[in-house]
Amino acid sequence: MPVSDRTAPAPVAVFTHGELIGDALTKIPFVRALRGVFPDRRIVWICTEETQLATTLWPLMDGLIDEVRESTGIGRSPLELLKPFPIRERFSVVIDTQVVVWRTLLARRLKHELFVSPCAKYRFSDRKPPAGYVKPRHVVDRLFDLLEVATGQRPVLDKAVAVPADAEAEARVLLPDGPAYVAIAPGAGKRHKCWPLSGFVEVAKAQAARGRVPVFILGPAETEWVPELRAAVPQALFPLQDAALSEPRYTPLRTIALSRCCSAALANDSGTSHLFGTADVPLLVLYGPTDALKLMPKVKRGGFLTASEFGGPEMERIPVDAVVAKLDALVEPAVVPA
Fold it and tell me: Cα(196)–Cα(194) distance, rounded to whole angstroms?
């Protein structure tokens, strides 16, 4: 590692417990905003556990995060408060993104000029929000509030995530210009978060009837659905199951690039919904037992439907016609009179 320039400002540290794929995708706007407010600082991401920002999403971090220290173990046990702290260097700003009190007390032991944390209503933070502050419901809004407290300026939500040129070129081969494509992701990490597959079939048929091409985005756990979906919707495409694709075929960059070729996208509350959100495609997400107002990906145009609107938390309560109508509005937005 090169010797640091002693005349340069001390780096900025972000402390997190770690990020699974959904958490990591949710934090991408925060990472981009962080670089925007600290354009000339070295940014160090410090995690208790692993983070997908350092592995599957690392190509998207180019120019954003300078160093990731994952699986440090810092924050695994409150007993660490009784031991010498393992990191000796000094940071200009330490931003603690989590809210467990004893972990915040550990993070505060990082040498700093400014420490900012939302834990216990910013009780341990060197700077605090204005009096009367109410924590927003959405995770991204909370993170942006944290940056605003740290810097005194509201960061801009920047969705211009750069995808490597080879991934974009491959996507254009799989989904060439011409038709209006609609991405459909019927899976989720937990099946109780999935709308019935029959509903996605009916939506895909409706898209085909309107002259659009349904594009099913299926992960490795959902390939068993391919024969049924092909038989039910012969017009549909399955780009991630294309035999010519190189391995590994199921990569976030590939899904982001494919979804950017689409006019709109439909998903359950899932990692794929956040990949669609990262691509900033017009997006409809279906929610049952989870909180749409907290988790809906930030996109320029989008919306959600919740099972609770139709009487309960079960996903099957969401009617097909409501999904089709909302998706149609995203594909063909109303023209506002001049």
Answer: 6
To which H or E segment does residue 42 belong? none
In degrees rounded to 5, what are phi and psi of residue 221?
A: -80, -5
Q: Is 56 left (phi over 0), alpha (psi -120 to 50) or beta?
A: alpha
DSSP 182-217: EEEE---SSGGGPPPHHHHHHHHHHHHHTT-EEEE-
> If you average pLDDT over every residue of the chain, what do you get?
93
In whole angstroms, give the CA distance from residue 300 to residue 279. 10
Question: Cα(37)–Cα(141) distance, rounded to whole angstroms?
Answer: 16
- For the stretch 266-277, pLDDT in tens is 999 999 999 999
- The per-residue pLDDT for range 100-156, each reduced to its tens digit, is 999 999 999 999 999 999 999 999 999 999 999 999 999 999 999 999 999 999 998
> 277: which 2 tokens?
């959100």
Which residue is listed with tokens 């409809």?
Answer: 284
Whole-angstrom Cα distance, residue 260 to residue 282? 10
Query: What are the tokens at 37?
Result: 């407010």
Distance CA(281)–CA(257), nearest Å, equals: 10
Q: What is the pLDDT of residue 6?
A: 58
* C-beta neighbour count of 293 within 10 angstroms: 11
Q: In what order do the strands lie in the sheet with 181-185?
A: 213-216, 181-185, 264-268, 283-287, 302-306
Residue predicted with more confidence, 190 or 42: 42
- CB atoms under 10 Å from CB of 165, counted, come to 9
Left, alpha or beta for 144 (phi > 0: left; psi -120 to 50: alpha)? alpha
Please, are residues 266 and 171 in contact by the beta-carbon 8 Å criterion? Answer: no
